[in-house]
C-alpha cells in the first residue's frame, strides 16, 4: 500500500446536520459555520437542499459570497427543478458540486421497466447537472439495503454518465462494519471504473457504527468521508468529524487537510448555536 494518501473531508453539518431534531441554522449561522469549516481545512461543505427547502437557496448564495477555497455543495433529487435550484444557488461559488441522490432500494426489483426507468432518470440527472457544474457527485441512497446487482448497474451508469464522485451511504445506519466492508469490496470487484473516480461514504450512527463504517473502506480505495461536526444528523446522527480526523491522523497510511487543533473551536460554536 502506498503510504500517506489524502482523504477528502466532506462536511454535511449545514445540510444533514439540520435534520437533527430541533436544529435550525439561520443564514448568519450558516455563514459563520462555513467560514470556520473552511478555516479548519474542510475540503467540501454541503450547505443545503435548495430543491426542497427554499430558505437554503438564499443561504447557499450567502455562503458562496464568503467561501473561497472549500468546494460548496448542494443536494438535489431526481426532479429537474431540484437540479436547477441547486445550480442557481451555486452560481457565485468559487468551487461547486451538485450532489444528486437516487433511491436504489425500491419495492419491485424484479420489474425490468422500473429498473430501466431509474437508470434512465439517473443518466438524465447527471447529464443535466454537468451543464451547470464541473463536479457532480452521485449518491446511491439506501445502498446497504438494496439489490447488489442493481446497485452495480446504477453505479456504473452514474460513472458512464459523468459523475466524478460516487457516494455509497449507509443511509439508515443499519450496516455492521464487516457487512459494509463486504458491500464496498463487491462494488470494487464488479466495477473496474471505480478506480477512476472518487468513492465516498456517508454513514449514519443508528447502531453506533458510523465512524467505524466510514473508515473500513479506506484500504479498498475510498477517498472521501462525509461527516458532521459533533456527529449531527438525522436520527442518531452522522459520523463525527473530530473522531474521523483523529482516527485518520493515527494511521500513517492516510492524512486529511484538517487542522485538528481548531476542531474544538467549531465544536463549541455548534454547541452554542443549537442550545
TrEMBL record:
Annotated SUPFAM superfamilies: Aldolase
GO BP annotations, alphabetical order: L-leucine biosynthetic process
GO molecular function list: 2-isopropylmalate synthase activity
Domain of life: Bacteria
Annotated keywords: Manganese
InterPro entries per the UniProt record, alphabetical: 2-IPM_HCS-like (IPR050073), Aldolase_TIM (IPR013785), PYR_CT (IPR000891)
Coiled-coil residue windows: none
All residue ranges annotated as the Pyruvate carboxyltransferase domain in the record: 7-264
Protein name as it appears in the record: HMGL-like family protein
Amino acid at each position: 500500500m502506498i503510504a500517506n494518501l489524502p482523504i477528502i473531508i466532506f462536511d454535511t453539518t449545514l445540510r444533514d446536520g439540520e435534520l437533527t431534531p430541533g436544529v435550525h441554522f439561520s443564514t448568519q449561522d450558516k455563514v459563520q459555520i462555513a467560514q470556520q469549516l473552511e478555516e479548519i481545512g474542510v475540503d467540501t461543505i454541503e450547505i443545503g437542499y435548495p430543491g426542497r427547502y427554499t430558505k437554503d437557496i438564499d443561504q447557499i448564495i450567502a455562503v458562496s459570497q464568503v467561501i473561497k477555497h472549500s468546494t460548496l455543495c448542494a443536494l438535489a433529487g431526481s426532479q429537474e427543478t431540484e437540479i436547477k435550484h441547486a445550480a442557481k444557488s451555486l452560481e457565485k461559488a468559487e468551487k461547486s458540486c451538485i450532489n444528486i441522490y437516487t433511491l436504489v432500494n425500491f419495492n419491485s426489483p424484479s420489474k425490468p421497466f422500473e429498473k430501466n426507468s431509474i437508470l434512465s432518470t439517473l443518466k438524465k440527472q447527471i447529464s443535466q447537472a454537468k451543464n451547470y457544474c464541473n463536479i457532480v457527485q452521485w449518491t446511491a441512497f439506501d445502498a446497504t439495503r438494496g439489490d447488489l446487482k442493481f446497485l452495480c448497474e446504477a453505479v456504473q451508469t452514474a460513472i458512464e454518465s459523468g459523475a466524478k464522485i460516487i457516494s455509497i451511504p449507509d443511509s439508515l445506519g443499519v450496516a455492521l462494519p464487516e457487512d459494509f466492508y463486504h458491500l464496498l469490496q463487491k462494488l470494487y470487484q464488479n466495477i473496474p471504473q471505480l478506480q477512476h473516480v472518487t468513492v465516498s461514504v456517508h454513514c449514519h450512527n443508528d447502531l453506533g457504527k458510523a465512524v467505524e463504517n466510514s473508515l473500513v473502506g479506506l484500504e479498498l480505495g475510498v477517498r472521501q468521508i462525509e461527516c458532521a461536526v459533533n456527529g449531527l444528523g438525522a436520527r442518531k446522527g452522522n459520523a463525527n468529524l473530530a473522531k474521523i480526523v483523529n482516527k485518520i491522523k493515527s494511521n500513517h497510511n492516510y492524512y486529511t487537510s484538517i487542522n485538528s487543533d481548531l476542531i474544538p473551536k467549531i465544536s463549541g460554536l455548534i454547541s452554542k448555536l443549537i442550545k
